[in-house]
Model the fold of this input.
Amino acid sequence: MRLLLAEDDRDLVDTLKKDLQSAGYAVDVADNGVDAEYLGNEMIYDVAVLDLGLPQRSGIEVLKNWRSNANHLPVIVLTARNAWHERVDGFKAGADDYLGKPFHVEELLARITALMHRSIQQPGGTLNAIGLSLDEEQQTVTTADGQQHKLTGIEFRLLRYFLLHAEKVLSKSRLTEHIYDFDSEKDSNVIEVYVRRLRHIVGNDRIETRRGQGYVFRNNN
Amino acid sequence: MRLLLAEDDRDLVDTLKKDLQSAGYAVDVADNGVDAEYLGNEMIYDVAVLDLGLPQRSGIEVLKNWRSNANHLPVIVLTARNAWHERVDGFKAGADDYLGKPFHVEELLARITALMHRSIQQPGGTLNAIGLSLDEEQQTVTTADGQQHKLTGIEFRLLRYFLLHAEKVLSKSRLTEHIYDFDSEKDSNVIEVYVRRLRHIVGNDRIETRRGQGYVFRNNN
DNA sequence: ACACAATTTTCAGTTTGATTTCAGCTTCTA
DNA sequence: TAGAAGCTGAAATCAAACTGAAAATTGTGT
Done:
């Protein structure tokens, strides 16, 4: 799950980035409006956290620009305390959710997961498939036989992405894009290796190979 | 599960009540502060959802009254979005959790269940886990072998946070945020050091390391 | 104010294990 | 049937976590 954090407060970015990463997000940071706008348009993010008080170009402008480009990227807007007008403007500009500063990190995390889950209509901190349950707080999967498996960071990210996009063909490059942030450009077989490890846990036939196209996570069969 | 919904916005009540009922709660509604206070004192609820902006008697007053009657009813406070001071007041008055309006129903539900789990523990200043009992007034732990250990300030805060959030991956930055009073995040290994000390007291396998993700306090094994 | 005790933080050397790489193998398809 | 794509087991890597001790800070009693 790849996330754009558009925020200029250094201290806040430092802690938020760590929290988000350990919650399994690949985090790209933009500390000004121009970069934020560019990244939001050029890269593929699953969610953006956008501070309205960015330098160079205001968050509102950035958001409007995204929306005018038919970019439906889910956006959580951060507003300064007591800035009622910003909130309204934010919604008008197409924000999906907002959060007033200061806030508890837990609240932001909860809103992000809620937003992510909205598209597949599964609330809460677990992602369920037939005979599979992924606990996002524990970062574990429980399989049909009742066994609970701990997942490493990358295993967790990959499986969550599969579950959120079950029954779709996911190319290896798309998987890489959503699992790693922009520091790491991969030309290797990491995905293959991790698909193998996941297959070992969730069952071989669960992840189907589409030679030349990618993988499909099956929920029916 | 019986729930008191203290809220005067008719429209909100209508939708919330249905959602809560379909989530399995028996819902009583109070649309003003006087009724809310009365019901909270006279009936037995598992949880209350309390809007601070009630007519006739403010939510804060209601909450204070409940607490002064030694009523430990778990309370989730609903505040207007930008009213940070209300949250603080709410916490001081004894709220267990808060939620800023507007919110997603899923989030309210998640918080209610979280609160229910939390309140399974006995009130009265002790937090219990299997083979562990944390006395919050004395700041001591009693372990399975009957040994009582005195805890230093930081050891206590850390262990309490672990107990309140057992079975969840807690990142080091999240732990620091909750242990230090909103100071700047420093680049040190204090958490590692204190985790080590706690492990010495509560047992090594009680606190599990998730490399790159954080720590999990185990209550089952 | 002082010495002394307890607590918190820093530091540096060591260990660990998640991630990545690699090389040989298998399977598919053009 | 040859070349590409994917699979697989094992090994190398390197940041993250562990550890013991010492330094710094805070608290306490005299």
About this structure: Chain B has a mean pLDDT of 81. The helical segments of chain B are 10-22, 33-42, 59-68, 84-92, 105-119, 153-164, 172-179, 190-202. The interface with chain A takes residues 81-82, 84, 100, 104, 106-107, 109-110, 167-169, 171-174, 176-177, 184-185, 210-214, 216 of chain B (CB under 8 Å).
